[in-house]
Amino acid sequence: MGKRITGDFILENDISEGTHFCNYLLGTNFEMDTDDGYEYMNWDKGYGDYLAKPDWDTLKVVPWLEKTALVFCDVYTVDGEEQIKIAPRNILKEQVKKAESYGLSPHMASELEFYLFNDSFSDINKKGYSKLEPAGHLNEDYNLLQGTKNEPIYQEIRKQMHLMGITIESSKGEAYKGQHEINLKYADALKAADQHLMFKHGMKEICIQNDKSVTFMAKPYAEWTGSSGHIHLSMMEKGTHNNAFYAGDNAENPISDTLKHFLAGIIKYTRDFALMFAPYINSYKRFAPNSWHR
Question: Does residue 105 have a pLDDT over 60?
C-alpha cells in the first residue's frame, strides 16, 4: 500500500514530516473490507488518519519504472509524535530492539516459491480464477531445460532487482510445472523484510509490464505442489559477525546455549506462530503428511 507523490510536490514541500493515509488500511481483509473487531480502527471511533513517515535509508530508484523512486515509511499518530505499535514494520523494529538488548542481532534471508502464468492478471480475473494453466508442462525441480522456457522473464527480474540493490543469490525450477523459486541474500532483519516485500511487489509489476502474472499463494490448487516462503534466520552477536548459534571450535557440542533456547522457543510457540505463518484458509491446503505438496 502507498501513494505516488509527484516530483514537483516533493521539491516544493518537506515530505520528511510524512504523508497522511486512512487508518483503515491496518484493519482490512484482502477485499479491502472493514471487518469488525479491531481496537485501533472501527466504525465507532470513526476512520481517521495515520502518518506515514519516510525512512530515508530505504530510498531506492525503481529501475523498471521511468523516473520513479520508492521509500518505505513508518506509521505514526497523525501528530507524528507516537509510533503505531500494531504496524508490521514497527512490530519488527521492536523485536529487533529486544534482541539487541540481549546482545544479539538477527539476520534473515527469504526463499520465495511461486507460480508463473502466461496469462495477465486481468485475463486471469476474467476467467474467474479458474482453469488456470501454469507457464510450463513438466515438473521443473532443478531442471535447467524446463526453467529455460521462462528464463527471459526470470532474467529480467534478476536484472531489475540487481539494479535496485536487491541481491538475488539464485533462481531454480520447483517441483511442479510453472513453479519456480528465487533466493534473496541475507541481511539484517529489517532490511531483509523490506527486501522481501519489495521483491514480491516488484516482481508483480514486472509481470504486469510483460503481460504475465505470478502468485505466491500457498497452494492455488489442492493437486499442485505447495509454494513455500522459507525464512532463514541466523543470529549474530551484536556489533560483530560472530555466529551466536555456534559454541566455538573448541566446544564439545557446537550448538550454543543461545541456539538451544532459540529452538526451545520455536517449539513452544509454534502453534501461536501459525497465526503468522499460515494466516489464510489457502495456507492449510499445504498441510499434508508425507507429501511434497506441503
Answer: yes
Residue 288 confidence (pLDDT) above 80: no
CA dihedral sign, ordered 53, 56, 62, 66? positive
Q: Considering the domain 7-86, what is its CATH architecture? A: Roll (3.10)
Domain with CATH 3.10.20.70 in the chain: 7-86
Name the DSSP letter for residue 26: G
Architecture label for domain 106-286: 2-Layer Sandwich (3.30)
* Residue 199: predicted pLDDT: 97
Report the distance separating Cα 207 and Cα 200, nearest Å. Answer: 11
* Across 259-286, average pLDDT: 89
Rounded CA-CA distance 230/161 in Å is 19
CB-based burial, 9-32: b 16+ in 10 Å, e otherwise: eeeeeebeebbebebbbbbeeeee
